[in-house]
Amino acid sequence: MNKYCFGVDIGGTTVKIGLFTTDGTIVDKWEVKTNKEDGGNKILPEVCASLEEKMQEKGIAKDEIEGIGIGVPGPVDDDGVVLTCVNLGWGTFNVAEEVSKLTGIANVKAGNDANVAALGEMWLGGGKGHGEVLMITLGTGVGGGVIHNGKIITGTKGAAGEIGHMTVNYEEEDSCNCGRKGCLEQYASATGVVKVAKRILAKSDEVSAIRDKDNLSAKMIFDAAKEGDKLATECVEQLGWYLGAACANIATVVEPDVYVIGGGVSKAGVILLDVIQRHYEKYAFHAHKDKEFKLAELGNDAGIVGAAKLVINE
Amino acid sequence: MNKYCFGVDIGGTTVKIGLFTTDGTIVDKWEVKTNKEDGGNKILPEVCASLEEKMQEKGIAKDEIEGIGIGVPGPVDDDGVVLTCVNLGWGTFNVAEEVSKLTGIANVKAGNDANVAALGEMWLGGGKGHGEVLMITLGTGVGGGVIHNGKIITGTKGAAGEIGHMTVNYEEEDSCNCGRKGCLEQYASATGVVKVAKRILAKSDEVSAIRDKDNLSAKMIFDAAKEGDKLATECVEQLGWYLGAACANIATVVEPDVYVIGGGVSKAGVILLDVIQRHYEKYAFHAHKDKEFKLAELGNDAGIVGAAKLVINE
User: Fold this and answer.
1) Domain B129-296 adopts which CATH fold?
2) B49 CB contacts (<8 Å, ≥6 apart)?
3) Which of B294, B284, B14, B13 is nearest to B136 (CA)?
4) pLDDT (0 to 100) of residue B85
5) CB distance A287–B162 less than 8 Å?
6) Quick one: which of A50, A144, A274, B4 could link to A161 by a disulfide (CB 3.0–4.6 Å)?
7) How confident is the model at residue B172 (pLDDT cuts 50, 70, 90)?
8) In which residue ranges of chain A is pLDDT below 70?
9) Domain A4-120+301-310 carries which CATH code?
10) Architecture of domain A130-297 in CATH?
């Protein structure tokens, strides 16, 4: 009984779904299209239909399902209420209750997708074995998730872990996507590091492997830095400074045991961990020194793994 | 049965003790001297003797005591282990276990004093009715406590909530007491605001009520600002900027619902709340705006109230 659970990760274009045994083994995973017609009203019915279909396919009875966890690309409070989700066309409603109604399964929980991914990495990824984890996702933007005692800190209105919008530069003149100025996201996201590189290149006339590239990317910058390119190294140092200094300040609030770095930019690997940790140790309060910095391990599965973990109590 | 509990707040010179009913009513409070002889080994036996004495005086049997909560001026982990406490001469040992042995009362919990005071303010003070609270104590230093779901976030090694050592100025050349540079404590503590004032006075030759005072204090600065003194107002603005900006960054991590400001500097009152909140709203991410800023209400009792709360589950 109660051997299985579902982890659902709703994104703007696809919904990733995983069927898990309650010890965290993936039995099956698949995707359905995110149907945004009719103000996003079709998304949950279609997801639930897909879950029912999978149960039939696998011969799993409803009472063998421990629960359904759901990650949503917007703020979600502890009761499972999503507080508007622009990407999907959603207003404010209780996602968990809705899915419970549609499936007849009582144990349904929902969380913000970045927070849920952090939970996944805590459970089976880079943060495995730790209860106090800070996850930072360096993608198009900078996302975050704070895990305390093995559970997500959601904040009062589901907006904890928004560390991409921590102000790290009060002198910044360009605006962040959020409209404010000097957010961590402006320097540490995939697009941010490219902007930083363009500034560094403009201030110098040194030869560099990353100069005059139309499609300059975070990957190109890290690759050049690994080859010893001076200006590329300066870009990586600046990224490391912002992230290391931000993590040292985060430590004064929640003192995590491990910092897990994920997202596309983290494909740069150990060079990224090293530069962040070096700057972290420089700024950390003495009681916060010597923490672990690790790469995320679950990639795109972090969302479905963390969603499953929402409904599993060990 | 189990109608009472003790809250103990161990300080460097006195130990404050409260006898409470489990609904939070203070039955009695008193102090004993902190006896630091013999490496602080006499402190806990003397405190426990004082508890036994009070029970006899009041005719309270041991099995009427729900538990004993203890605040300690140093880092304490979730198991009640204090990790060196320089002020008291203590090394690393389990305070909770020790008090349990000495009294024969099983339910003993210990926490860091600033965190425990935050818990007290959450329970019966400025944060009453809220589960997500950030407490900032502006005294000789700047202390903090983060309350999540009605409980203290202690951090991996008992050093969460050290927000006085959040770096807020990377250009600072003077050192903080901790040896690092640019800590919030350097600008927002009672001594910090006086240093800020001296810098502001030195840069200007305007007449000011706070100029040429041998014993310039935070109180004098706030009093002058309330009278409209321009340079004093500038000092208060700078204090508000640092605290408001720090709170906006803390919100990106844990999104508290209410910020409770205590300590000697908070006697300045509403002028302090207003200036912090004004700067907070300027820097807060949109999802974090419109939070409450309140003054602490329990004064010196916050420690014993919070300590009592450590052992009461409602």
Assistant:
1) Nucleotidyltransferase; domain 5 (3.30.420)
2) none
3) B294
4) 87
5) yes
6) A144
7) very high
8) 1, 314
9) 3.30.420.40
10) 2-Layer Sandwich (3.30)
